[in-house]
Amino acid sequence: MNYETTLSSSLDSDLVVDNAERNRRRRNIALIVAAILAVAGGAYYFFGSSTAAPTDADKAGQAQTVTVVAPGRDSVVRAINATGTLAARREIPVGVVGEGGRVLQVYVDAGAWVRQGQVLVSVDSSVQTQQAAALEAQIGVARADLQLAQNELERAMQLVERGFISKADVDRKTATRDAARARVNVANAQLAETRARNARLDVRAPVSGYVLERKVEPGQTVSAGSGILFRIAKDGELELQAKLSEDDLGQIAVGIPATVTPVGTDRAFNGSIWQIAPMIDAQSRQGMARIALPFDTALRPGGFASVEIKAGAMTAPVLPESAVQTGREGSFVYIVGKDNKVKQRPVKVGSVTANGLIIEQGLDGTERVVLYAGGFLNPGETINPKLLKKQ
Taking every annotated instance into account, which residue ranges of this chain make up the domain CzcB-like barrel-sandwich hybrid (predicted)? Predict the structure, then answer.
């Protein structure tokens, strides 16, 4: 009885072990099948789906949205911006004209207005004054000799009629009278020359104008080799000397208005072009445009200033700076075609206005131009354009 019970228990235990083993194998098989199905599904997704070309709707759904604008054409004033140096329109250097001497007094300083002929510097002329006095005395002597010779000639003319003296004596007395008269003329000329030289000792203003610079002091000895003592802006007229490129020079003419702003101030001064250089510098490929300006103490010759020249009105597209890109070959923009693909279009950029950059060449204004994010696009890329209405 005990043997049968033991055998029955042993059989039951083996049966339980077999069932557990079968269940474990079933689970393993199920997991393997599930893994195979997952791999097959992924392979189909990646390889099977790639064989089918995406539709236009798929592309539109995946393309990034980009803001575009149709610039049109605006009437704008073409402005040329440049920089230059302020200067006197006609700067007159003033130096010693006469023989010079010791400076007694200087009557003007830099920043003063002078009139033509005004004495700027007086020079010691004591020696020259004595020389002039000596010449005046010589004139007196010469006139006395002339009077004596004239009287003797008149008496001789009376005696020759009576036969007391010969005709030859009269001729000699006539020659003596003429020589005395010549000596008087020589003395007068020498005195006039001395007086002219003495008048040139003082330094005078050759023109009326504004004194820019003074380089002389009382007690200084000056001469013809002393150099420049004063610089005068004739009539106080000033100018801006702006260097422009060949292209810009071709766009301007004499009389065109310009606005000048000196460095260090917000004041703007209105002027106009009065001269355009007839030559171009071979090194810099630039030429000079000279802009006449009215006198003002804020305009200091030698200073730096910027200028905006109104070069006439034109009709052209105007774009914000964000729409214009710069590459190795120059400026360009991205335009959007009918298929919503971007294309690179080279453009020529003009001057800057309050509304943006003037596009002189490359656009007619009807294109859809990428307004922002142009630096993140590539030619041929498909986008979803969002048109921004121009205000």
Answer: 100-233
Instruction: Identify the residue whose tokens are 């006395």.
Output: 144
Domain 126-200 has CATH 1.10.287.470: yes
Helix (H, G, I), strand (E, B) or coil at 30: helix
Q: What is the pLDDT of residues 257-291, one digit of tens each?
A: 999 999 988 899 999 999 998 889 888 889 999 99
Q: Which CATH class is domain 65-73+317-388?
A: mainly beta
Q: Which residue has the tokens 């610079």?
A: 213
Give SS3 for 316. Answer: strand
- Domain covering 91-122+204-235: architecture: Beta Barrel (2.40)
Residues comprising the chain, all counted: 391
CA distances from 314 to 74, 82, 249, 317, 350 (A): 8, 20, 17, 10, 11
Superfamily of structural domain 83-89+237-306: Efflux pump adaptor protein, beta barrel domain (2.40.30.170)
Alpha-helical (H) ranges within the chain are: 2-43, 56-62, 126-162, 167-199, 246-249
Q: What is the pLDDT of residue 118?
A: 94
Separation between Cα atoms, residue 273 and residue 82, nearest integer Å: 13
Confidence (pLDDT) at 20: 56
Q: Domain residues of the chain, as ranges? A: 2-52, 65-73+317-388, 83-89+237-306, 91-122+204-235, 126-200
Nearest residue to 319 (alpha-carbon basis) of 74, 64, 66 = 74
- For 294-352, how does the pLDDT look when each residue is reduced to its tens digit (9 = 90+)? 999 889 999 999 998 887 677 888 888 888 888 888 899 999 988 888 898 999 887 77
Residue 323 has φ and ψ, to the nearest 5°, of -85, -15
How does residue 37 score in pLDDT terms, banded at 50, 70 and 90?
low
Q: Which of 229, 239, 227 is nearest to 90 (CA)?
A: 239
Type of residue at 112 = A
What pTM was estimated for this model as a whole?
Answer: 0.58
Contact (CB, 8 A) for 287 and 226: no
Among 209-218, 227-236, 362-371, the minimum mean pLDDT is found in: 362-371
Give the number of C-alpha atoms closer than 13 A to the C-alpha of residue 336, restricted to the C-beta side: 23
